[in-house]
Amino acid sequence: MSAVSQDTAVSTGRVTRAFLYLVLLLFALFYLLPLYVMAINSVKPLDEITGGNMMALPSQWTLAPWRSAWSTAQIGVEPTGLRPYFLNSILMVVPAVAISTIIGALNGYVLTKWRFRGDTWVFGLMLFSCFIPFQIVLIPMAVVLGKLGLAGSVPGLVLVHVVYGIGFTTLYFRNYYASFPTELVRAAMIDGAGFFAIFWRILLPVSGPIAVVSVIWQFTNIWNDFLFGVSFGGTSQPMTVALNNLVQSSTGVKEYNVHFAGAILAALPTLFVYIVAGRYFVRGLMAGSVKG
Amino acid sequence: MAASAADFRTRLQDWLPKLVLAPSFAVTLLFVYGFILFTVVLSFTGSKMLPRFDWVGFANYEKLFALPAWHTAIVNIAIFATLYIVICTVVGLMLAIFLDQKIRGEGVLRPIYLYPMALSFIVTGTAWKWFLDPGIGLERIMHQWGWESFSFTWIKDGEMALYTIVIAAVWQTSGFVMAMFLAGLRGIDNEILKAAQIDGASNWQLYRRIVIPLLRPAFLSAFVILSHLAIKSYDLVIALTGGGPGRATEMPATFMYSYTFTRNQMGIGASSAVIMLMTIAAIMVPYLYAELREKKA
Predict the structure, then answer these.
(1) ipTM score
(2) CA–CA dist A55, A233 (Å, integer)
(3) Cis omega before residue A65 (within 30°)?
(4) Average per-residue pLDDT in chain B?
C-alpha cells in the first residue's frame, strides 16, 4: 500500500505468486521451443536428426547445413541455395518500405492539417483497403501486371506492396499527426510558409517515433509476405516462396537440418529489426495509433 | 502581372494538399475498389484459365456451394477461426493479467512472448511441421525419453491435422494479443481498483466485475484483428500441411488459389474470393464506421 505504482493494486499471496511464475515460465518455454528446435538442428549432421533426438544438443557441430541453405541447396530446379532469393527480398523490401512510408507521411499530413470536405470518407476508403482479403485482387492484379510488363519482376512486387501498404502507413501518420497542435501549423501559414515548407520544417522533425512504427510494420509485412510473392514473383521470387519450395521439395532426401537453417535465414532480418527496434515500435504505437 | 502570379500561387497552395493526396486516392480506387468490381464481375462469367466476359448469372456460386471441397473449406475455417480467436484471447488475456502482477523479469518474458509475431508464417509452418512430424519430432522424442506408448500423429491424420494449424497459429499471435491486453491493463486507473478493494472485493471479483469490462476496447480490437488474420490464412496452411492430408485442411484461401491458378476455374475462384470479402466486410465495415464516427465527434 506504499508507493503509487503503475502496476495493478491487486495483492497476491505466496502460493498464488509461485503459480503465476510457473505458468509464465511454461509459456516462455512454449514460445522458445520452435526457435530452439530450429537452431539446434541447423547445426547437426542429418543422421543425428533422423537417427537421434530432435531435442538433444549436437554431438558433432557443423555449419554445413547453413552453407548448403545459403548457396547450394536445390530450390525448385536450380541448385542455387537461398542467396539469390534473399537478394530479391532485399531489393523488393527497401524501395517498397521507403516509398509507402513517405506517401503515408504526406497523406497523414494532408488528412489532418489540410482538412477538406469529405476527407473522412477518403480516409475510410483507404483504411478499408488494409483489411480486404487479398484473394479479391489477385486475378485483376495478375492481368494489370502482365499489361504493364511487370509480371514476375521485382519492380512489379514493389508496386503491389506499395499499393496495398499505403492504407496502413496513412493510418499511422494520420493518427500521429492528429495529436500535433494545429495552431503551430496555422502560425507558420500566417508567416507565409508553404505546404511543403510546413511539412519539412515543422512536422517531419517530430515524426521519428511514428516513422519507426511505419517502417517496422511495412518491413515485417513485406518481408514475410508469401501470397503476392508466389502469385506474382515469377523468376524474381522472394525469400518466403523459396523457403517453401526448399521445404516442400518432394525429390531426394529431406534435409531437415538445411530446412531449419533456411528458415532461420528467412527469419533473421525481421528478428533483427524486432530485437533492435521492437521497443520503439511499442512506444511509437502508444504515442500515436492507440490514442488517435 | 505580379498580382496574377501571386494569385496563381495562392490557388496552387489551395490545391496542393489535394494534389498530393490524389495519386494515393486514385490508386486505391483503381487497385482496390476497381479490382474488387472486376473480380465480382468475373464471378458471374464462365472464365476458365483467362478472364472472359460471357455472363453466366449465379452459376459459379451454385457450383461453388455444391462442391465438397468448398464445403470442407467452410467447415474448416469455422472451426479454425473459432478455436484460434478463443484460445488466443484466453491465453493473451491470462498472460497479460499474470504479467501485470509486478512480475520480476517482465522485461525478459515480454519479448519472448512477442517475438513469434516477427516471423513469417512460412518459417512458423516449417518449424512446427517438422517438430510435429511423428517420424522425427515430438512423438519420437517422447519415445526416446522412455514414454513408449506416447502417440501424436495429428499432422498426418485427416481428422486432427486442422488442430495442428490452430497450435501453430496460436503460437504465432497469442503474444501479440497479450501485448494489446497489457496496454489496456496499464491504462486502467489504480484508484478504481483500490476503492473496490476497500469495499471488500476479492481478486476474482475485481477482475470479473471491473477490470475485464474495462478492457472492452482491447477485446474488440483483438477480435477484429484475429478474425481478419484467420480468414486470410493462406501461408501457414501451405507451409504446415499444404491443405492435406488429402484435402483435410482446405481453407477458403487455399481453395481460391488452387481453383483460380492451378485448376483453371477462374469463375469459381472469383466467386469464392467474393464470399471471403463479404465475410470480412461484415466484420470490418461496422467496426471502422464506429471508429471513424467516434473520432469525428
Answers:
(1) 0.88
(2) 36
(3) no
(4) 89
What residues make up the domain containing A96? 83-287
Q: Which of A45-59, B189-203, B259-273 has the lowest mean pLDDT?
A: B189-203
Residues of B with CB below 8 A from A45's CB?
none
Q: What is the pTM of this model?
A: 0.89
Instruction: Pick from A10, A158, A185, A253 the residue to mutate for testing the B interface (most B CBs within 10 Å).
Output: A10
Q: How far is B254 from chain A (nearest CA, A)?
A: 10
pLDDT, position B273:
95
**Over the stretch A81-133, which tens digit does the pLDDT of each residue have?**
899 999 999 999 999 999 999 999 999 999 998 988 888 899 999 988 888 99
A102 touches chain B (CB under 8 A): no
Select the residue of B109, B228, B292 nearest A124 (Cβ to Cβ): B292
Q: Are residues B259 and B133 in the same domain?
A: yes
pLDDT of residue A286: 63
State whether B151 and B224 are in the same domain.
yes
**B121 shares its domain with B238:** yes
Contact A136 B13 (CB under 8 A): no
Rounded to a whole number, what is the distance in Å from the CA of B225 to chain A's nearest CA? 9
Distance CA B201, CA B142 (A): 45
**What is the residue range of B37's domain?**
1-42
Q: Is A20 exposed, middle or buried (0-12, 13-18, 19+ CB in 10 A)?
A: middle
Are A278 and B101 an interchain contact pair (Cβ–Cβ within 8 Å)?
Answer: no
What's the CA angle centered on A154, arms B252 and A216, to 5 degrees?
Answer: 75
Question: Is the domain of A223 the same as that of A246?
Answer: yes
Provide the grid cell at A259.
Answer: 530446412
Same domain, yes or no: B17 and B160 = no
In a domain, B278, yes or no: yes
B157 falls within a domain: yes
Contact B190 A132 (CB under 8 A): no
Arithmetic mean of pLDDT, A212-238: 92
Q: Which of B18, B101, B114 faces A20 most closely, judged by CB atoms?
A: B101
Inside any domain, residue B50: no
**Are B15 and B133 in the same domain?**
no
Cell readout for A68 is: 548448403
- A59, pLDDT greater than 50: yes
* CATH of residue A251: 1.10.3720.10
